[in-house]
Design a protein that fits this description.
The protein has about 600 residues and is an alpha/beta fold. The chain folds into three domains: about 240 residues, Aminohydrolase, N-terminal nucleophile (Ntn) domain (Glutamine Phosphoribosylpyrophosphate, subunit 1, domain 1, 4-Layer Sandwich); about 190 residues, 3-Layer(aba) Sandwich (Rossmann fold); about 140 residues, Rossmann fold (3-Layer(aba) Sandwich), CATH 3.40.50. The protein is about 35% helix and about 25% strand. The strands form four sheets. The protein has an eight-stranded antiparallel sheet with strand order 3-2-4-1-10-9-11-15. It has a seven-stranded antiparallel sheet with strand order 5-6-7-8-12-13-14. The chain is globular and about 80 Å long. The two termini are about 30 Å apart.
Amino acid sequence: MCGIIGYIGNKNAINIILEGLKKLEYRGYDSAGLAFVNDSQIEIVKCKGKISNLESLIKPATFSTSAIGHTRWATHGKPSNENAHPHTSRSIALVHNGIIENYIELKKELEAEGYKFNSETDTEVIAHLIGKYRKELSLVDAVRKACLRLRGSYAIVLIDRNEPDMLIGVRMESPLVIGVSDEERFIASDIPAFLNYCRNVVFLEDGEMVLLSKEGFKIYNLNGEEKEKKVHTIAWTPSMAEKDGFKHYMLKEIYEQPRAIADTIRGRVLSDGEVVYEEWGLMPQDMKEFERLYLVACGTSYHACLIGKYMIEEMCEIPVEVDIASEFRYRKVPFGKNSLFVAVTQSGETADTLAALRYAKKSGIKTLSICNVIGSTVSRESDYIFYTRSGPEIGVASTKAFTSQVVAFYILSLALALSRGKISKEMAQDLVIDLMALPRKIEDTLKLDADIQTIVKEVYRKPNFLYLGRGINYPVALEGALKLKEISYIHAEGYAAGEMKHGPIALIEENFPVVFITSHGSLLEKTISNIQEIKARDGFVITITDTNKGLLNRLSDKLLYIEGSNPYLNPVIFTVPLQLFAYYIAVLRGCDVDQPRNLAKSVTVE
């Protein structure tokens, strides 16, 4: 997830690009750069770090009427000056947001033809591919031909020194919006980049290309057919625009989960059930050797590990231990030589998780990290790394980072099971089909937003909540309770439903709210028995389920029916309404949702 902005007009494009990049820095903060035409040459200024670093490199008198800029959140290649955008080839400079799935095969093809690569990014492949076709084709046709060869998601904007009065943008599954004003045009990944200058916008759709000049714009599909588009007027304030019109970053990030999960999946599995291993380095021959796994994390990531344990043990028949990092680092663990240590951390800088990783490495066992930040300490120190690619998360309470971690465990489980011969090719294919359908099912679940708000209005004043689940849904109950505690400051407990009679049932009284997470399967009847025990004590039952059995409906005071998936992916789907539930309770209670008291986004001290 990166920030893009381009400008063409009569004003100084350099100043406009820098201002736009500052508005987009929440989308990426690893590195930044810009390109502009000066005396028929393209000048590139880029560097690792914050926008302020980039600004200090630009001479005060620099002037150009057209430029493109980029602020990066790394998905391929660590944060560095070389990996910062823009990237160049022949006469063009290009910026890109997204993930190119087939960049490895395209890179090999281009290297065989003599093209030299200066970065580790997938983006440079696009630049060289356009440069290759530019030898024989017009700029527009070269861009179109190159884009037709790309697989994955991308928003690209480019400038050519031979045609400095035009910018070209293309969108495919990654946002790109045009700003229209008198004798100037803008193009960006988000509206805030140019909102101070322009409120008239045109939204590009997938497979559309725009040609921008200060006189106007034309939009085509990738077959070359011109498209007519409606101009919309935006009434947002700048702060609203940064959140895409959402009131809080947390809500925005909840709604980003279909995209985040799609990016986690992208390029990792094939429709025939195969797993793609190159990027994370843990190959099938390595996986055959593991006799035990240790999953270690803190907070929300710990709950992802608990879900991962269920997946790995059931799919792969490997014993799995799950530990809280702050406890694990002080244990004396008798590692076997064929063990794998898995660290899970959104930031890659969590102090306790990093210490646990170093302890495991010192013991001589292999280490894998599931992490969201390229170039982080954990990613650098691990033997293998799986990047979740869910994009920067601004809200302190983790949402899309958590669900992406669970998806990462699903892919890891699938890879382990295949390499060890524990599942058939046909079963793997079915599991991949379910995975590919997950983003759409999350989108459908988000449509329950209004129903959740209705339930919230009945319970948001309650001082205590109990969350219950069985099997793989038990960690979902833990995560639901944690979200409520974090942002609403309500006391909430998550329990395994079978443990209810071993203490928590003493809390139940009239209208005490109990949230059940349950799905179809062998544990459903046992969960229904637990619900009956709550109702016998006049508790208030809220049920989240993928089954519409009549008895479940009758016993529940409120029931949210969700279209489920297979048992391993249901925790991802069931988590989404729990996130919304916590969010709307916090809002009604007047809490600071994005920055709850006493909490930090990344805990980098013990």
